[in-house]
Amino acid sequence: MKSYRLNRLFNAKSGRCFDVAIDHGFFNQYGFLSSIEDAASAIATVVEAGPDAVQLTVGQARYLQSVRGRGKPSLVLRVDVANIYGRELPECSFSSMISDAALQAVQLDAACVCVNLFQIPGAPEVHSQCIDNILELKAECDGYGMPMMVEPLVFRPNEEAGGYMVDGDEEKILPLVRQAVELGADIVKADPTDDVSVYHRVVEIAGDVPVLVRGGGKVSDAEILKRTEDLVDQGVAGIVYGRNVIQHENPAGITSALMAVVHDGLSALDAEQFLRQKQ
Q1: Could you give the C-alpha distances from 82 to 122, 125, 185, 189, 196, in angstroms and in order?
Q2: Which fold, 2-276?
């Protein structure tokens, strides 16, 4: 049954997935709310742009799942919440999972769930909590036939720029990705490496588990399109971008441009034409 749900995530034409993450409001950070203050409007804009999937929380999934018709994106349900994204780590750091996560995903007609696997300097207890979450979720997901996406995130020290800054060292990313696979991930959503040309090593270390790449912080159109082109060339199964879509002045245009790279094999330069679409 997991394979049936996975089929809803991956594009029939390319076999790859473009997932737009709009779950940032879950994490209690003021800066994460930029461009998604009106959640219903932000989600409607992305749905209209037509990516393969949208990543949402239990509190916001209704805005996607209430859309009529067969053509809407699939739901990726975020099932854990953490307090580790600020510039300073709190005295009591946590990563907690919602109750009956796989069952709630089934009830919301999700195509998969997404859970974090953090590696944070100075917070080994959060890594332990993430492992406990995944071990519990794995058994639930197997029982309900719900694919489990594990998101291994290697942080730079929080004081450098808050906990949303990726440490792109492949020697740190590779073992964490492999741990996600060993814990039973059906899909891995992983950090980009500083050197995109080595990303095939991440794909290789994951074996037959599809690897989707996180977008990270907001960058220029040219940079995100070129990085995406290079990652596709390295063999990734897709991308999961949030701020580079939802904070864009033309979310529909950047979505179309990225989909052209991911699904149609266009170069970054050729895909820029979609940014001239009407908003």
Answers
A1: 15, 12, 20, 17, 28
A2: TIM Barrel (3.20.20)
**100-120 burial code (b ≥16 CB/10 A, e <16):** ebbebbbebebbbbbbbbbbb
For 226-253, what is each residue's pLDDT tens digit? Answer: 999 999 999 999 999 998 898 888 988 9
Task: Tell me which amino acid residue 75 is.
Answer: L
Are 219 and 247 in contact by the 8 Å Cβ rule? The answer is: no
Beta bridge partners of 208: none
Residue appearing with tokens 């209704």: 62
User: Letter for the amino acid at 45?
Assistant: T
- The domain ranges of the chain are 2-276
Helices (runs of H) and strands (runs of E) counted in the chain: 12, 10
- Does pTM top 0.85 for this prediction? yes
DSSP string spanning 91-145? SS--EEEPTTHHHHHHHTT-SEEEEEEEE-TT-HHHHHHHHHHHHHHHHHHHHHT
